[in-house]
Design the sequence.
C-alpha cells in the first residue's frame, strides 16, 4: 500500500512542478505562495475537523 502511494507521488512530482511554474508565470510569485499556503491550511484543517480521523486514536 505504501509503495503504491510512494510511486504515485513520484510520478506526480513533474506534473506538480509544471503546474507550479505555470501558476507563477500566470499570477506571480507572491500570489502563488498565498494560494499554496491557503490550500495547505485548508487540507490540514479538513483532517483536523474530520471526526473519523480524530477518533482513530481512541479505538
Sequence:
Amino acid at each position: 500500500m505504501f509503495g503504491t502511494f510512494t510511486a504515485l507521488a513520484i510520478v506526480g512530482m513533474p506534473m506538480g512542478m509544471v503546474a507550479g511554474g505555470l501558476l507563477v508565470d500566470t499570477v506571480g510569485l507572491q500570489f502563488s505562495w498565498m494560494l499554496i499556503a491557503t490550500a495547505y491550511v485548508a487540507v490540514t484543517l479538513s483532517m483536523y475537523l474530520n471526526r473519523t480521523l480524530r477518533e482513530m486514536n481512541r479505538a
About this structure: The chain has one domain: 2-54. The chain has a mean pLDDT of 91. The radius of gyration is 16 Å.
